[in-house]
Specification:
single chain; 378 residues; Helicase, Ruva Protein, domain 3; Arc Repressor Mutant, subunit A; 3 domains; 5-stranded parallel beta sheet; 9 strands
Length: 378
C-alpha cells in the first residue's frame, strides 16, 4: 500500500492539506490584478499553493506564467528565464513555440527540443547582429503584449524573488518596478522564502520595489486542520491514530507542512495495518529521521565556528522569543559580547540557517533544531 504522506516536492490533490482561505485570498488577488508579495519560511508550501491556485483558473480566461528565479544570477539569466517561461506558457506545440519566441523576442534565437515526456521546451541564444535591442525592457513588456495577443488576463509569478538581491546591480529591480506600475491589468505574485529579505525589498524606502504591492505572509497550518487530514490518511489505509497523538506530533513540527508530512511518513510505516499509533512510535519516527539527516547536519555543524555553534545551541534550547542580546543569554551560552552575537547572526542569516521573526531569531529547520537539542554535548 502506498504511503499517503508526501513531502519534498510540489504537493497537490489529496496530498494537499487545507490552505482553503489562503487559496481564496490569492484567487481574489489574481482576479483583481494585484501586485502581491507572498513570503514565508522555506518548505512551507508556497509553490504548491501557488500552483494549485493557477491550476484552478479557467484556461479560456487566463494565461499563467510561472518563473523560478532561484537558478538566476544576473540580468542575462533573468531575461532568459522570463523568455522561456513566457514562450512555453503561450505555446503547446513546437511550431507555435518557435513562432511565439521569434515574434516576441527579437534579439533571442530560439531552439526547441522535447523533454522526457515529449513536451516541447525552448532554449535561447543571442543574435549578436542586434546588440542595440534592449533585452530586459523587451522581456518586461511581454505581459502586456501577451494579454493583447491572447485576449486573456495574465498572471505572472516570480518564485524565489529575493534572488534578484544577489544580482550585481539593481537594474532588474528598478526596471521591473517601472514596468509593473503601468501594467494595471496584469496580476503579479512575488514569492520568497527568505522572509527578512523579501520584507526588506518592499519595506525599505531605499529599495526600488518599496511599497510596490501588498504583502501576504504565509503562516503555519493550524492543528485543527492537521487533525482531520492526518486522521483521514491513517483511517483510509486501515490504521488508527488518536487526536492526542496528532497533538503531540504537531507540537514537534509546529504545524509546518513539510516537517509534519515528513514525520507522518515514517510514522505511517511503523504502524502495522489494523494497528494504532503510539507515543513511542513518534519517538521512533523522530529518531529515524534524525539518523537519516545526521550526516548532513554534522557536516553543517562542522562548517561553523565556535560562537555560531553556541548561538544555535541557545536558540534551539530556549525557543522562539529568546532575547539573544540579553546578558543572561550571553553568559549561559558563553558568547562573550553582543558583537559576537551580531557577527554570528549575520553569518547564520547569510547561510540561511536562521531567520528573523517578530519575536526574535529562529532555526526554521525543525529537525535540525531537534538534532541540536539531542546533541548538546557537541
Amino acid at each position: 500500500m502506498r504511503n499517503p504522506f508526501q513531502y519534498g516536492g510540489v504537493v497537490s490533490g489529496q496530498s494537499f492539506c487545507n490552505r482553503t482561505q489562503e487559496a481564496a485570498d490569492l484567487r481574489r488577488a489574481v482576479e483583481n490584478a494585484e501586485k502581491l508579495f507572498v513570503y514565508s519560511e522555506r518548505r512551507l508550501g508556497k509553490t504548491s499553493l501557488i500552483r494549485k491556485v493557477l491550476a484552478e483558473l479557467p484556461e479560456e480566461e487566463y494565461l499563467t506564467v510561472y518563473i523560478d528565479l532561484w537558478p538566476t544570477d544576473g540580468e542575462t539569466s533573468f531575461v532568459l528565464a522570463c523568455a522561456k517561461a513566457f514562450s512555453e506558457a503561450m505555446a503547446t506545440n513546437t511550431d507555435k513555440l518557435l513562432h511565439t519566441a521569434k515574434t516576441f523576442f527579437s534579439r533571442l534565437v530560439p531552439a526547441v527540443t522535447a523533454n522526457d515526456e515529449g513536451k516541447p521546451i525552448v532554449t535561447f541564444g543571442f543574435d549578436q547582429k542586434r546588440p542595440d535591442v534592449p533585452l530586459l525592457e523587451e522581456v518586461l513588456s511581454m505581459p502586456a503584449k501577451a494579454a493583447e495577443k491572447e485576449s486573456k488576463r495574465i498572471v505572472v509569478v516570480f518564485d524565489e524573488f529575493q534572488q534578484i538581491l544577489e544580482y550585481e546591480s539593481d537594474v532588474v529591480e528598478r526596471l521591473l518596478r517601472s514596468s509593473i506600475q503601468h501594467q494595471t491589468d496584469v496580476a503579479y505574485i512575488f514569492c520568497g522564502s527568505r522572509k527578512h529579505l523579501i520584507r526588506q525589498m518592499f519595506m525599505d524606502s531605499q529599495r526600488p520595489m518599496y511599497r510596490s504591492g501588498s504583502h501576504y505572509p504565509l503562516g503555519l497550518i493550524a492543528e485543527e486542520h492537521w487533525q482531520k487530514f492526518i486522521t483521514e490518511k491513517f483511517t483510509g489505509t486501515g490504521k488508527r491514530i488518536s487526536a492526542e497523538i496528532i497533538t503531540a506530533l504537531c507540537r514537534l513540527t509546529e504545524g509546518h507542512p513539510f516537517y509534519t508530512q515528513h514525520l507522518c511518513h515514517p510514522l505511517w510505516e511503523l504502524c502495522e495495518e489494523g494497528g494504532e499509533v503510539t507515543l513511542e512510535m513518534i519517538d521512533q519516527a523522530t529518531g529515524l529521521l534524525l539518523d537519516r539527516e545526521s550526516y548532513a547536519f554534522m557536516n553543517l555543524w562542522d562548517s561553523l565556528a565556535r560562537n555560531p555553534r553556541r548561538f544555535l545551541k541557545g536558540v534551539a534550547a530556549e525557543g522562539p522569543g529568546v532575547q539573544v542580546f540579553a546578558s543572561g543569554f550571553l553568559r549561559k551560552y558563553q558568547l562573550g559580547s553582543s558583537s559576537n552575537v551580531q557577527r554570528a547572526i549575520e553569518l547564520l542569516l547569510k547561510k540561511d540557517i536562521i531567520d528573523k521573526e517578530e519575536g526574535g531569531m529562529v532555526i526554521p529547520d525543525r529537525f535540525f533544531r531537534l538534532w541540536i537539542n539531542s546533541k548538546q554535548g557537541i
